[in-house]
């Protein structure tokens, strides 16, 4: 079966990458390529939508697509768990709504790095995230860092908040789920994330570097091919790659 894909943000870096992938795939076909000037109803008739646009536009695109019954893969950043909960309610309240897959990072290495951080989280009382991106990134903290902090926070449920001394000082970062997140925006980089965990006489650093946008390709294809069968709201590639790492316990 051929999957017809509508791409929102098609004129951008991620959108152009997606168009090349669709062109090169036997089972995917381009239905519509939307830019900031397009009408959303160009998406109608697609089997799946991909949103890789702008944080300010993403909510409207997701609501339109889900509301029209078109499953959508959302790669655009800027989605917190609270905003995702709004979409979950929307999908639950609309029987015909299309599934929504929020994928903060399409790179398999990044997804694993986030899962490893959540696995380690119950064992360390100090945890901070440092993420670094290219100077053109408009949002901070990154969607990946927000997702990582939220999963780390969840994994520590019952352990209490991490130690984040002097967190009221601006240079100590922005707290997400109680985890200080520090954002760098600079030339020469694509994307990096370090989760630094500190315990009794030791630190553990979980670092991931995106060296080329090609790291996103496998995840984009996986999500687009999974979306037609998806139900409700999914967050992250983890379940799609069979990741079931324990995230609680430890520290007895
Ligand atoms: N999940 C993941 O693994 C990854 C996610 N991202 C995220 O994907 C998003 C796009 O990144 P990137 O491709 O680098 O960005 P670009 O700036 O290269 O492209 C942005 C795209 O969005 C469109 N756009 C901008 N504003 C609007 C608007 N108001 N309404 C509709 N469309 C709009 C632009 O259209 P126009 O040309 O008309 O301006 C363009 O097509 C970002 O949020 C980024 O963080 C990026 C990399 C990986
Ligand atoms: O804007 C980017 O480039 C990226 N955005 C995503 C994020 O906010 O986490 C994913 C990746 O880090 C690249």
How would you write the strand order of the largest sheet?
2-1-3-4-5-11
> Over the alpha carbons, how many angstroms does the gyration radius reach?
18 Å
What's the number of structural domains?
2
Please tally the β strands and state the result. 11
Structural class: alpha/beta
| Shape descriptor | globular
Distance N to C terminus: 51 Å
The string of secondary-structure elements, in order, is: EHEEHEHEHEHEEEEHE
Bound molecules: NADPH dihydro-nicotinamide-adenine-dinucleotide phosphate, ligand LZUJQKHR
CATH third-level topology of the largest domain: Rossmann fold
GO cellular component, one term: cytosol
Catalytic activity: (S)-2,3,4,5-tetrahydrodipicolinate + NAD(+) + H2O = (2S,4S)-4-hydroxy-2,3,4,5-tetrahydrodipicolinate + NADH + H(+); (S)-2,3,4,5-tetrahydrodipicolinate + NADP(+) + H2O = (2S,4S)-4-hydroxy-2,3,4,5-tetrahydrodipicolinate + NADPH + H(+)
Subcellular location: Cytoplasm
Domain Dihydrodipicolinate reductase N-terminal: 3-106
List the helices and strands and how they pair.
Blueprint: E1 3-8, H1 13-24, E2 28-34, E3 48-51, H2 55-67, E4 72-74, H3 81-93, E5 100-102, H4 108-120, E6 126-133, H5 143-155, E7 174-176, E8 179-185, E9 191-199, E10 202-210, H6 217-226, E11 233-235
Parallel strand pairs: 1-2, 1-3, 3-4, 4-5, 5-11, 6-8
Antiparallel strand pairs: 6-9, 7-8, 9-10
This protein binds NADPH dihydro-nicotinamide-adenine-dinucleotide phosphate and ligand LZUJQKHR.
NADPH dihydro-nicotinamide-adenine-dinucleotide phosphate binds near residues 76 and 105.
